[in-house]
Amino acid sequence: MPVITSIDDLKRIYERRTPRMFYDYCESGSWSEQTFRENSSDFDRLYLRQRVAIDMAGRTTATQMIGQDVAMPVALAPVGLTGMQTADGEIKAARAAEKFGVPFTLSTMSICSIEDVADNTDKPFWMQVYTLKDDDFMQRLFDRAKAANCSAAVITVDLQLLGQRHKDLKNGLSAPPKLTAKSIANMMTKVHWGLGMLGTKRRFFGNIVGHAKGVEDASSLTTWTAEAFDQSLDWDRIRQFRKMWDGPLIIKGIMDARDALEALNVGADAIIVSNHGGRQLDGALSSIRALPAIMEAVGDKIEVHIDSGIRSGQDVLKAMALGAKGTYIGRAFVYGLGAMGEAGVTKALEVIHKELDLSMALCGKTDINAVDRDILMIPKGFEGDWQA
């Protein structure tokens, strides 16, 4: 067993063990992938300020996200097709998150259904929903989440149109994978993955097949998906979704201060500053560069979280120092999941927690809730000095 000390260690194992189409699905962005790259590299532009001769004993990374206790300000982000990265992937990731004490967010486009995850975990998880046209499906999705005791809903608002991801098109991405000469040849080299898939019944989109009208198999799912996303989405439509769900609500996909204010006005409990991991509008700012302006606009009027580009505990620390109250990891936990299943997700969380804890201490802080901009050295123009 190799010694795992970083998320990159897990990524290397993940690439070896997972079929290419699902590795590429995770490790890609839209168009030129500029935003995908800068989501991570822009964290490197923020420097940490080391302090010494400060009592570093008794440290804690425990805090709250939307009023819920968390072991550290990190949640597992909603990632579609997680159950294709490894058999029953959503269940394995949810179990790891539960044991570690951080939230797990289930994607609408998951392979394991809401009920599958609820039946195999003990604590409430969060449910992510897309903004779809079908009111009946949406209401039943919220009702199913409530019946499963989900403790928050996350509405993704940046997927009215699907960004073009070249690799997915070239690979013929699908769940289950389409059997072509290329895909079969690649899957034959992923023996552990294949054996896992043979041993599970969960190979389709569990929240949709059998739940959406007219969707009974993979072929009908393709048609439904193409027609389901609501290109006419506006804030009044989001208000309708707010009425469908009376629990804590998080709006994901905010990249502009004006939209942050709109989210506040529709009654959201939190927003996630997110560019969908660089998978939608390429050429947009990284999430970490967009965060300060959004914090300035909404302040403490609404809880602000962030995702896209977080691969380490230092990234979490820097986001918290800029004012975020929570962060989300997507690719980082998927690397662990594809590498080593549930144990790999646990390892990813351990790696991030250790780096967060040690870096916080070396910056002279012993409580994650006391971290502020004083620990950062921020370059001039980090947010951008744009012409009017």
If you had to describe this structure to a student in words, what would you say it looks like?
There is one protein chain. This protein has about 400 residues and is α/β, with parallel strands linked by helices. The chain has one domain: TIM Barrel (Alpha-Beta Barrel), CATH 3.20.20.70. It contains 16 helices and twelve strands. The protein has helices spanning about 5-15, 20-25, 35-40, 80-85, 90-100, 115-120, 135-145, 165-170, 180-185, 190-200, 220-230, 235-245, 255-265, 285-300, 315-320, 330-360; strands at about 45-50, 65, 70, 75, 105, 125-130, 150-155, 250-255, 270-275, 305, 325-330, 375. The chain has an eight-stranded parallel β-sheet. Helix 14 (about 285-300) links the parallel strand 9 (about 270-275) and strand 10 (about 305). The longest helix is centred in the C-terminal third of the chain and has 32 residues, at about 330-360. The termini are far apart.
